Amino acid sequence: MTATMRLREPREMLALIPHQIGFRPVESAVVVSLRPPHGRVGLVLRVDLSALADPSCGPQLARTLVGHLDRDGARSAVLVVYTAHDPRGTPGHEVWSAVEHLREAAHPLGEVPAWAVTDTGYLSLDCAGECCPPGGRPLVELDSTQVGARMVLAGSAVAERREDVALIGPAGGEARRAVSRVRTRWSTAGAAAAASGPDELERWRLASVRAWRDLVAAATVDPAARGSALGRLEAGLRDRRVRDAVLIALLPGTGDLPEALVRGSDPDPAVVARMDEALGALFDPVRGVRPPERAAAVHTRVLEQVVSHGRAGEQAPACTLLAVLAWWAGGGVRADLLLERAMREDPGYRLAQLYAQAVATGMPPGWVAVDG
């Protein structure tokens, strides 16, 4: 995840990292990009400690990480390793191989400080004196930092496990059954509309997009209508043009473009051009924008409701759109987990495959470059 804050001391950074990646790292190596002009925190990248320490693959992984730092505009970097015990005094510990590989790859960035967080303390791996006693300084010190307090006040929560970052539990049985009945009827109506001709299919698609609009404005929708809208949206998202319309509706300032995308037998070329321009908010390093916080929270909540009320094995569209929102906000771990779920539910889902490639290569959202 990307941050725009400056940290005055190492323990502030150590307190920030779990909030940035969304969970408490275990046997991990985390590289933090520090960007000009005054050491602003940029990309925060986590890999398995054993992978970075591996004698065969570790050096290449280190070079890949440094490549991401370079694209992020890093002026310097910090390495933090998470391991059970204080590795000092254990020359063969894999921590030292990981540190060596990263420092060798990051030579153009100058000296890379290395820190360790263990089960009981935190310490500088470059310190052999009293500043970091055996076992490190107590972890409780990380709970009383200014940055930690700021993140908590901002509503940030840290999951205990990586897989919990994207956990979406099922809704209650009766609520799911009610949505299921609507979903089945709306899927049947969509098939009938497609068989009836382009005009009927257009009306069905517009009604599916309207279900999204209704759910986003859920404060004015009674609970019964909300369940009906969830069923219609879940069925509608199986249609590629409805899904693309909802994707565009996630972006600021798109007006009636989502509805325009589902009109006609084929999208109008001018409408497609507007769609490509709108997507610049996500990807373009010049026009990229941060996701509007309140709108993104509402969009996330609606899509999570689709998943929690929906039929297992058919949530690839909603999970992929949730992944887009997570990636756009800088939540690479959550995005990766949601895309993994999308591709488990539909291994051939093309949009999930495309975004998975972007996440895997460390491609940042466009606003990262704009803010830099």
Describe this structure in words.
The protein folds into 2 domains: 10-140 and 151-160, 3-Layer(aba) Sandwich (Cytidine Deaminase, domain 2); 173-371, no CATH class. The protein contains 17 helices and 6 strands. It has helices at 10-21, 49-53, 58-71, 94-105, 146-153, 173-196, 198-216, 223-236, 240-249, 257-261, 269-278, 280-283, 293-309, 316-328, 332-345, 350-360, 366-371, and strands spanning 28-35, 40-48, 76-82, 114-117, 121-124, 137-138. The protein has a 6-stranded mixed β-sheet with strand order 2-1-3-4-5-6, with helices on both faces. The radius of gyration is 23 Å and the shape is elongated. 44% of the residues are buried. Mean pLDDT is 88; it is low at 1-7.
Keywords, please?
53% helix; six-stranded mixed sheet; Cytidine Deaminase, domain 2; alpha+beta; disordered N terminus; 372 residues; 2 domains
What percent of the residues sit in helical stretches (DSSP H or I)? Answer: 40-55%
Strand arrangement across the biggest beta sheet: 2-1-3-4-5-6
Strand content: 5-15%
Average pLDDT confidence is: 88
Low-confidence spans: 1-7
Q: Would you count the extended β strands for me? A: 6
Category from helices, strands and their pairing: alpha+beta
N-to-C order of helices and strands: HEEHHEHEEEHHHHHHHHHHHHH
Give the end-to-end Cα distance, rounded to a whole number of Å.
14 Å
Q: Mind describing the biggest β-sheet?
A: 6 strands, mixed
Q: So how many helices?
A: 17
Task: Count structural domains.
Answer: 2
Give the CA-based shape: elongated
C-alpha Rg (nearest Å): 23 Å
What's the topology here?
Blueprint: H1 10-21, E1 28-35, E2 40-48, H2 49-53, H3 58-71, E3 76-82, H4 94-105, E4 114-117, E5 121-124, E6 137-138, H5 146-153, H6 173-196, H7 198-216, H8 223-236, H9 240-249, H10 257-261, H11 269-278, H12 280-283, H13 293-309, H14 316-328, H15 332-345, H16 350-360, H17 366-371
Parallel strand pairs: 3-4
Antiparallel strand pairs: 1-2, 1-3, 4-5, 5-6
Helix pairs in contact: 1-5, 3-4, 6-7, 6-8, 7-8, 7-9, 8-13, 13-14, 14-15, 14-16, 15-16
